[in-house]
């Protein structure tokens, strides 16, 4: 979908699905039956529990799947692949006792395998057996196999409790267990920065600096840690020392820009990207950064620079000039640039942008006519025609025309039956209008078309958890998505939220902390804040509510959470609401 059609901020689980992603289970049975190091005779393969496990997994019933996979693994001697599958499904289902039994089988069938040690360390970390976890992780980190550290990293990254992960990682650093290679230290360093433990982050980065004092990437990591600790002035000074090398090193330039962006300094990110040779992609990135920084003077200068070569019929360049004109609130000039884009793939996007610019000019009838013309153009690319329906729906949403938004998407579905993008967009439109029954119907229709669409599974599960009381059904849908992408922050967040709605607050807190470590998203922050508030940890809750507000002041999830907790719209003041009578009891699910 063109960027223009994503003007409204999407919540984390409502990102457009794009190309449907597969769970990869259609051939799971075949994979399980593939020969292992010591294949069993064909007659010994336990088909009945395998099929039961597969059906349970596809239904999102992870506890049942874990039970059946373990039964199959114990009934079939010698298959390491099946034992591994049983271990991983049991861990995903939080069935630790079954995971231990399956892991014993896996270790016996694949002794010394790095993957076995990684899973063993992860399970020990989850169960609080930290000494054992440290021992297994050190063994992986010392392995002569170059992949050893990756298994150790994965085990730590999958840890559910950030405090335990931080403690073990800190011990590994103090013991000198991290291999003395820069990529390894960078990977573990980024993990340390995500754990919300300033002390660990500082110790880790100081250790990296001691080992690799001349590496600019290490200096950038150090700047990120300083900013996280509230020492932004020192972080900026450190980045300034690295900048002179950026013009000659594109990769370093990109790292600097990303760091400035994370520090909420898009103007500095744009300035860095202006160093060195430029191409259309770098110009586009600079324009986007300057727009986020609201740097009108910078946008004007870039517009003039590119406009000097505007007579050249480069489609990409003319598209960019049109975007710059839009950023500068000059929609009439934008229309002219877009109309000058010659044929080819850029022409389709230009036609979309013309409608957007006309809408900005207040010429709404013409804007809708442009979208309709593209929809009806049989010679146009089918995806462009489909996107024109999505665009019209977006414009009608901006105009507050909910009925028109749904009608446009309905016409799109008549032209492109069962298109997943259109179904997904209409489901979100229904949800915004509080028509949860219709939102559910469209998401279920999408899942009939594509039963393994991860975005739809997660969206439907989250919607049921958030807007209904059908929590168990929501959990099964989210679990199906978790099987596909266990480290997807949006899905981890949905899992934490449905656990909270089920009244399992401590489990929810673990999942939501993990989601926040994976992605600093306002809605995840809101969920984490609400769980902490209900648990009586008000100071921590205030911190996350405020971070969510800084990321997105108009966040709908934040507004609804404050209403649920009966807090003022601008959030709880320090010391306010410390009487837990104003919030749901910690032993009950949120309303």
From TrEMBL:
Residues 1-42 form the signal peptide. The keyword Thylakoid does not apply. This is Tetratricopeptide repeat protein. It comes from Pseudoxanthomonas taiwanensis. Residues 573-591 have a biased composition (Low complexity). TPR repeats lie at residues 522-555. Residues 562-591 are annotated as: Disordered. The keyword Nucleus does not apply. It holds the Pfam family TPR_2. Keywords: Repeat, Signal, TPR repeat. SUPFAM superfamilies: TPR-like. SMART domains: TPR.
């Amino acid at each position: 979908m063109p960027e223009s059609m994503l003007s409204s901020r999407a919540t984390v689980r409502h990102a457009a699905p794009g190309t449907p992603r597969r769970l990869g289970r259609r051939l799971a049975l075949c994979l399980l039956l593939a020969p292992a190091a010591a294949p069993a005779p064909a007659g010994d393969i336990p088909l009945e529990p395998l099929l039961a496990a597969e059906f349970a997994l596809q239904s999102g019933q992870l506890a049942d799947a874990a039970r059946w996979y373990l039964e199959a693994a114990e009934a079939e001697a010698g298959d390491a692949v099946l034992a591994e599958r049983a271990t991983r499904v049991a861990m995903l289902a939080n069935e630790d006792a079954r995971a231990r039994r399956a892991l014993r089988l896996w270790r016996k069938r694949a002794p010394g395998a790095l993957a076995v040690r990684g899973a063993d360390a992860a399970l020990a970390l989850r169960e609080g057996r930290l000494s054992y976890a440290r021992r297994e992780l050190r063994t992986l980190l010392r392995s002569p196999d170059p992949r050893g550290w990756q298994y150790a990293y994965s085990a730590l990254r999958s840890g559910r409790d950030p405090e335990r992960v931080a403690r073990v990682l800190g011990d590994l650093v103090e013991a000198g267990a991290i291999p003395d290679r820069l990529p390894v230290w960078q990977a573990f360093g980024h993990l340390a920065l995500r754990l919300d433990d300033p002390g660990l982050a500082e110790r880790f980065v100081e250790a990296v600096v001691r080992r690799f004092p001349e590496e600019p990437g290490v200096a950038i990591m150090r700047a990120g840690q300083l900013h996280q600790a509230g020492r932004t002035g020192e972080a900026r000074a450190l980045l300034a020392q690295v900048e002179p090398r950026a013009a000659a090193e594109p990769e370093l330039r990109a790292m600097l820009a990303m760091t400035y962006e994370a520090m909420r300094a898009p103007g500095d990110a744009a300035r860095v990207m202006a160093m060195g040779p430029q191409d259309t992609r770098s110009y586009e990135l600079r324009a986007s950064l300057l727009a986020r920084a609201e740097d009108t003077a910078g946008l004007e200068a870039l517009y003039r620079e590119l406009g000097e070569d505007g007579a050249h019929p480069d489609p990409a360049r003319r598209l960019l000039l049109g975007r710059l004109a839009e950023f500068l609130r000059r929609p009439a000039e934008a229309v002219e640039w877009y109309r000058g884009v010659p044929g080819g793939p850029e022409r389709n996007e230009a036609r979309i942008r013309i409608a957007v610019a006309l809408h900005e000019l207040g010429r709404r009838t013409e804007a809708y006519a442009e979208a309709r013309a593209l929809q009806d153009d049989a010679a146009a690319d089918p995806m462009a025609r489909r996107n024109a329906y999505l665009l019209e729906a977006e414009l009608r949403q901006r105009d507050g025309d909910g009925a028109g938004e749904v009608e446009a998407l309905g016409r799109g579905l008549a032209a492109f039956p069962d298109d997943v993008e259109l179904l997904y967009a209409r489901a979100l439109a229904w949800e915004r209008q509080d028509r949860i029954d219709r939102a559910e119907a469209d998401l279920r229709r999408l899942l009939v078309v594509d039963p393994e669409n991860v975005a739809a599974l997660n969206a439907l599960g989250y919607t049921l958890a958030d807007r209904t009381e059908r929590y168990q059904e929501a959990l099964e849908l989210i679990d199906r998505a978790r099987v596909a992408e266990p480290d997807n922050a949006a899905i981890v967040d949905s899992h934490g939220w449905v656990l909270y709605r089920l009244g399992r607050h401590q489990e929810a807190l673990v999942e939501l902390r993990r989601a926040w470590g994976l992605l600093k998203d306002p809605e995840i922050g809101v969920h984490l804040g609400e769980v902490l508030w209900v648990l009586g940890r008000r100071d921590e809750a205030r911190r996350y509510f405020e971070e969510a507000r800084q990321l997105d002041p108009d966040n709908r999830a934040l507004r609804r959470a404050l209403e649920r907790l009966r807090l003022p719209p601008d959030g709880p003041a320090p010391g306010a609401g410390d009487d837990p009578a104003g919030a749901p009891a910690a032993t009950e699910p949120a309303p």
